[in-house]
Amino acid sequence: MRRKLEAVALHALVIMAAVLTAAPLLWMVSASFMRAGAATSSPPPLLPAPHTATLEHYRALFTSQSLGRYLLNSLVIAGGGTLLGVAITAMAGYGFAKLRFRGRDPLFRNLVLLMVVPGQVAMLPMFLELRELGLINTLFGAMIPVLAPIYGVFLVRQYALSIPGDLLDAARIDGASEFRIFRSIVLPTIAPVLVTLGVFTFLSAWNDFMWPLIVLSDDARYTLPVALANLAGEHVQDTELMMSGAVVTVLPVFLAFLFLQRYYIQGIMAGSTKG
Amino acid sequence: MLQHERAESRAGWMFITPALVLIGVFFVIPVLGALVLSFTDFDIYSIGNPADTRFIGLGNYRSLFADPLFWKALRNTAYYVVVGGPLSVVVSLAAALLVNARLIRWKPLFRSAFFAPWVTTLVAVALVWRYLYHPQYGLLNAFLGLVGVGPIDWLGNPRWAMPAIILMSVWKNFGYNMLIFLAGLQTIPPQLYEAAELDGAGQWQRFRQVTVPMLGPTFVFVGVVTMIAAFQIFSEPYVMTQGGPLKSTLTLVLFMYEQGFRWWRLGFAAAVAVVLGLLTLAGTAVQLRLRRGGERVV
Fold it and tell me: Which among A6, A37, A142, B220 is most buried, taking Cβ atoms within 10 Å?
């Protein structure tokens, strides 16, 4: 009996906590469908009044605010950055794990030490550097932080260490080139960690704000977060419009999370105990 | 060296070179560059004509340490790290214990619900919270009004603005640390709890005597990760308060951004960046020292 009461109480607690956690996101979605001005009335409504739910703000975003363009920029930067970044990181992680060459381990140790330096320390000189290279205001310039993440090299290396060396040596004796070995033996073996790396890379590129804000000054190149922050400056009063902008920005990464949950959750849980 | 060894060594370098070049050009050189830049008077005129730049030794650091705004930003950042960090750890641990409780069903569902805010875009949810915090129309004040708490001007009052930002960040981030605590909890052998129960330990005692010590290394990991992230806080104040009111939410990185990219005082801003880097290193070193102590306990 006591056990049962305890179970009911615990469930009440966890459900309440989950509802509170979801509340800001649920309100965001709800407000995005309210008529202009409806969210700012007293007392604040939780849902659009009956028969007033509207898509007008979404329509306005994609017509007068050219959100489609920012969505495309974000997709190119996050998608392209993820593909390139995973490829570069996979090669490096495997190289550090399995290929024997002089100076490999000290080099790797120094690389890992670099992880404690926060990225923001590099941003001012990096801006000047990109200016010299003509990469300011380019989508490629905005991708740079995710192209060779050191934690990614670390993650892939830890995973690739478990590839049996005999397997690689056997392929070498059969006359396979190193690139061939990488493509047909290594890649399939490390695929799971690459998916994990891919979802985290995409997420961090999509959600990043400070670097795109610095590197993209022409508003035709803005990513969604930069455009949204900019829009918020002009349209502070338009709560419902801003909330539809927030929904459009969050939705792609949120859907990705719903479908690929286990990669996120396993990635974090495994990273903490092995690292 | 044998021929096949030479081939493998060459392949090794080929595989790591793209990553090394990118890390070198876009991380190592800029980090060293920040150090060099911080000793120069690089400003808006230098952008047009870099030859104008002069080395001024520790000049930027002298003006930085004499700038009340820098100390304000440092204090605000310390407030955020010292209050927000531990609060975030406590909430994460509570959520992990709740989700991990033996009696709880549908664990994966609740786990995902608590983790979901972490995947959202900070700029978007910071905007959402800006409206939730609205003194007149915000839902938060509406709920507080139900229990008789008067309207609080969350983001407009210098006393409440930083706590409001902390609350929002805890909400956004606790799911990540919760997962790490869950991973830690699952490594604790159940026999330890059974033994403690046989010895007559109650729930609280089992938590104090088994869970907390066994989670020692997890606490350090979570502590380091949370602290490093906290030092770097930028987007929350940028979107929610622009550093106001009365500079009460101006953080170190926001200060660096404004000096560097709004006023183009890149030399001066680089000094801020160097201070930020050194503070992060010092904080990490302290926590790693604690870890050595922590591992001895376990």
Answer: A142
